[in-house]
Amino acid sequence: MHAGPGGKAPRRALGPVALVVAGGLSVQFGAAVAVLLMPRAGAVGVVTLRLVLAAVVLLVVCRPRLRGHSRADWGTVVAFGTVMAAMNVLFYQAVDRIPLGAAVTLEVLGPLVLSVIVSRRLVNLVWAGLALGGVVLLSGGGFDRLDPLGAAFALSAGAMWAAYIVFSARTGRRFPQADGLALAMGVGAVLTLPLGIAEAGSKLLVPSTIGLGLAVALMSSVLPYTLELLALRRLPAPTFAVLMSLEPAIAATAGFLVLHQALSVTDSLAIALVIAASMGAVRTQVAGKS
């Protein structure tokens, strides 16, 4: 990449990166607040509060048009909303069982694998191997140390995260502003509402629970998803995917500050390996396009 007059090109390139980082900070600290809410409403109940309240906020703010969209447009929105709901349910099941930093480290493998597949550069296999080494280190040689079901939920959420990146980009191209996101959030809310009611029932209607749920909705859905949608209009999906590598570090910090989940030296090294692998993948892609 070559800078234009006054170095504007690098600044333009950093703009969407800043959006991704800001979204990551918001979503992970929101996730930490969600963990505090789980004893009140359960994991699925928290997901329901998050998506329903986020959908209400986005639909009121964006007021998306319901007419004039093609069948393909609606198909993209429904797929995006379904993936969003699945990603959240799986991730919250994971953080209900394993520390936040570990859960996000496993989850971020989804975007990293997406990046390796799409880029088709041999050197990215090295970065993927380094990330896998970090995950093995995090597991301590066996995921039973983390709780195998929690680890499985986190890895499954990672697969949904990769799909989320793909459909978020498609939705951003098909709909103006955040209209598609608002409609997809509505789909996700409708899908999770019966599950949340079945798990939490009237607990979802407690005012203090709704207040915390609104905070989680704003921090973990409305703000980050909007920032990511804007970023994906200016960033290739593979580059966006590997920038997600910062999230384990953000999650570990949020887990420590909000939930007092201290990490061992081994866990910290494992997270550092995953981050280094993803940053290496970013540099490889940037160098390949220079």
Q: Would you write up a description of this structure?
A:
By secondary structure, the chain is mostly helical. Helix 1 crosses helix 8 (207-232), helix 4 (109-119) packs across helix 6 and helix 5 (123-139) runs antiparallel to helix 11. 81% of the residues lie in helices and 0% in strands. The protein has 11 helices and no strands.
SSE layout:
Layout: H1 8-62, H2 71-95, H3 100-107, H4 109-119, H5 123-139, H6 148-174, H7 179-200, H8 207-232, H9 237-243, H10 247-259, H11 265-289
Helix pairs in contact: 1-2, 1-7, 1-8, 1-10, 2-6, 2-7, 3-6, 3-10, 4-5, 4-6, 4-9, 4-11, 5-11, 6-8
Residue fraction in strands: under 5%
- Cα gyration radius (Å): 19 Å
Q: Which stretches are poorly predicted, pLDDT < 50 over at least 5 residues?
A: 1-11
- The ordered H/E elements are HHHHHHHHHHH
Helix and strand composition category: mainly alpha
Helix content: over 70%
What's the count of strands? 0
Q: What count of helical segments does DSSP give?
A: 11
Mean pLDDT: 82
Spatial separation of the terminal alpha carbons: 5 Å
Shape: globular
How is the main sheet built?
A: none
Summarize it.
It contains eleven helices and no strands. It has helices at residues 8-62, 71-95, 100-107, 109-119, 123-139, 148-174, 179-200, 207-232, 237-243, 247-259, 265-289.
Distinctive features:
11 helices, mainly alpha, disordered N terminus, single chain
